[in-house]
Amino acid sequence: GAIKQFDDFLARTIEAIKLSDSWKAGNDLIFVVYDEGQDGGPGKAVKFDGGHTPFAVMGAGVHVATYEETTNHYNLLATWYAGFQLGTPPNKAATADPITQIWGTGC
What we know:
By secondary structure, this protein is of the alpha+beta class. 30% of the residues lie in helices and 9% in strands.
């Protein structure tokens, strides 16, 4: 079904990225983000800002760990902006706490 199709897509895509010269040089990060829960089912969100956003990050600059705090897409966007020093993120991400502990010494 759809889950196997997505798993196959990820396997192909991640493998292609990891074979690239850029990845081998340690210049890339891979983020795999699952949609956050809405406590109402598909198309029936009861919380506008969502809930926990499970994600995986791979790359040379990542501190490998499991993070227990509840996050949403705003926290993740704030994390990208902080990690790549992009300035202030837009909208609600501007006041969201970045997940700064994911960055290792390479970032």
